[in-house]
Amino acid sequence: MNYYDYIVVGSGIAGLYVSLLAIEHGSVLILTKGSIEDCNTRYAQGGVAVAIGNDDSPELHFKDTMAAGDGLSDAETVHILTNEAADCIADLIRFKVPFDTLNGEIALTKEAAHSVSRVIHAGGDATGEHIEVTLSEHVRSTPIEVMEYCLVNEILVDKGEVKGVRALDCRTGSEEEYTCRFLILATGGVGRLFKYTTNSDVVTGDGVALAFEAGTEIRDMEFFQFHPTVLRLPGVAPFLISEAVRGEGGILRNVEGRRFMSDYTPEAELAPRDIVARSIVYEMRKTGSDRVFLDVTHLSPRLLTTRFPHIYRFCLEHGLDITTEFIPVDPAAHYLMGGVKVSAWGEANISGLFAAGETACTGVHGANRLASNSLLEAVVFSKRIIQKTTSSYYSEGEEQQRNLKQDSSLTHGVGPSISCSLPCREVLPNVPPFNLPNLQSLMWNKVGIIRSAENLNEAANILATWQCSLSRPTDRSSHELNNLVLCARLMTEAALLRKESRGAHFRTDFPQSSSQWQRHTVFKKNHASN
Predict the structure, then answer these.
(1) How many angstroms separate the Cα of 340 from the Cα of each of 31, 210, 345?
(2) Catalytic-role residue among 246, 273, 369, 451
(3) 472 assigned to active site
(4) Which long-range CB contacts under 8 A does 477-480 form with residues at least 24 apart?
(5) pLDDT single digits (tens) 437-459
(6) CA geometry: angle at 377 spanning 421 and 275, to 5°?
(7) What backbone torsions phi and psi does residue 422 show, to the nearest 5 degrees?
(8) Helices marked H in 69-126
(9) Among 496, 495, 498, 490, which Cα is nearest to 463's?
């Protein structure tokens, strides 16, 4: 009764979309630790990048994505992303996602680091919510079985093949095993690691931690993207001010009212996110302020209220009229570029185990994600997972062969990966007490936008000490804390290992990029390590 062809862990865009494709080929179970709507997708204001404009092409989208990735994007998977994008958008339209139109055609907008207008939206700045609601409604109308409030706490593996999962019922505390042919991790990223974040409370690195403990390879965890513009108001939780606001002409000003981005880069407000985020930090330090301002008062009020209705309403509800007042902003944690290392078909190094969405590291984003490529990556590589599992490659009676992508990126200038395990570290006698606020503050202060060996080493030692003190998790909260500490260690050790600055990873002691480090970092569990 507990056997399924596909088990999908997570209910964001990747989990829902891959399930809707999979149900056409077998039985599907979605396991999600909250309700089906609890995910990051619904908070995604930005749209989906796709080359469908008259002045655009997959080749141009490819060039923009590779440029943003700062030398670490995998050319093979970026080609796949940009060339297969339109077909996946057609799928979403078939599922009746209500993308915005203009004169009978899908409306296209421009965002930072894109050379042309190619970003599509639904409901203006509510794209993620519209996609999530639409797909979840479709899932509920199919034979897909959904188990809510069910947290997966172990991947079951036998002789190099996935067999299923063990899961905790968060309401009763009971555990159950579920077996499958294919397991797809789609649990999102690790955004709750940081004190200031745009991420939902559910984003606690569950898929990455589960995969690591099962023996999969985890790649490029040092590359975490901080969104440059997040609303900063007293008593108000961080609220994303979309990249598209700058794309429409928004200007960044310091507390003195002076436009400053051209001091740091000729691309000004339209520079890649890592550059804009660091520039804002430097400007705040210069002016002794905890914020800068995003100015859209020169733009048409009609444009602002129709193009960004969600942002306009949210700010107005908190006493800020963006049509006449500057928006106070600063950076916050946003998106993980690393994750479970997968092939161009979404497969990890355990037969039958796949990962999709932010949980996976396909190599598309490299060192710095191009805006609006995340939702696109989720659907493109989810579709490829189903194509892979329904091909003769997995036909009945045929020996299952792993077709892991070797570092094909070698031919595109990326060197061989550096592989290692988490190092053993001395347990410190005196560390702050372990709890979520202390973990988030440590990561924000020591492993955040601007890093150094001193801060990273301090964080690494504290994290290792905390991890050694953890008891066996018994409920959802303790499982999430264990997962966060493990992901924090992976991120911090990877950041220490990478002795250069590249993309979203910036170190004051190694402020330049190095050709010696044009390579990936890969961590795999060593049972002798912490």
Answers:
(1) 19, 10, 13
(2) 273
(3) no
(4) 479/151, 479/153, 479/168, 479/206, 480/192, 480/204, 480/206
(5) 999 999 999 999 999 999 999 99
(6) 75
(7) -65, 130
(8) 75-94
(9) 490
